[in-house]
Fold this protein.
Amino acid sequence: MRVLQVMASGLHGGAELFFEDLVPALALAGVAQSAVIRPYPTRAAKLAAAGVPSVMLPFRGPFDLVSRWRLRTAARTVGPDIVIGWMNRACAALPRGPWVNLGRLGGYYDLKYYRACDHLVCNTPDIAAHMVRQGMAAAHVSYIPNFCPVRDEPPVVRASLATPEAAPVLLVLARLQPAKGIDVAIRALTAWPDAILWIAGDGLLQRRLERLAADLGVVERVRFLGWREDRSALLKAANLCLVPSRHEPFGNVVINAWAHGVPVIAAASQGPSYLIRQGEDGVVVPVDDADALAAAARDVFQDAALAQKLVRGGLARSAAEFSQTVVVEAYRKLFDRLQRS
């Protein structure tokens, strides 16, 4: 079996990170793959290190006929059994051929972008149901969640981030955009004077968030870390992981925290509400409620027994449902089924 992976979106983001996790994991499991990506040498290097060759195309949009033609040429050259398009732009450009087109999506997208897909794989059951409601046959929609690898790297040295060893460290891993609710996490600091907030992510809102932190008088306790590749090192050094998103279809950060044994406190957006079992493997608070977020985080930090309960629950969920082994096997079974159909 040979799989062609097509990723036509940006360099940073949850789906993009999972693409860079899943493709090497499938390669490690013996799945022969090639990839078509946008011109990001760092991504190409990661794929090459996993033994996955890539072709880089610009994918400038729906009127970029040259990229579509070159994608078709690449597919015919590779001769895949399955072509996987990641999200709207890639799936809208998928060529038809003697292969199965599989659309992979992690959001509540419009079915119009997936007309060239023979089958869809969604990372939550609710997203799968959303696509069925739009008209995709249920037999052609599958649910497979994401996983989070735990990297073999030591915790970040707190002093390197101007953080005292004894300080409660709250970690947010997210792009700096309105849907992620980073402003709520910053506001939560006003109710917990000892806590320090690490924000690992980049985006257009950084200056606005910096001004908010200054206006609230908490700027000395906020660390804007930019986009980081060392997710494991940051999680291993943090006391708590916050997911304050207003809109979050899945919630990669939740399973990241679980896999690393870090208690997670999340706003009740779609993905975290689906993933978290309240009080067993995490705590869910109302969306846009900074006081509730701060109170829940402080309670977990101060209650060692509760924190350990959440850690044990998260590790158990991670191993049973969201491990690399479980997810890769689910993809392999789906590939086998699609190839036989």
Notes: The domain at 2-147+324-340 is CATH 3.40.50.2000 (Rossmann fold). The chain has two domains: 2-147+324-340, 158-321. The two ends are 14 Å apart (CA to CA). The mean pLDDT is 96.
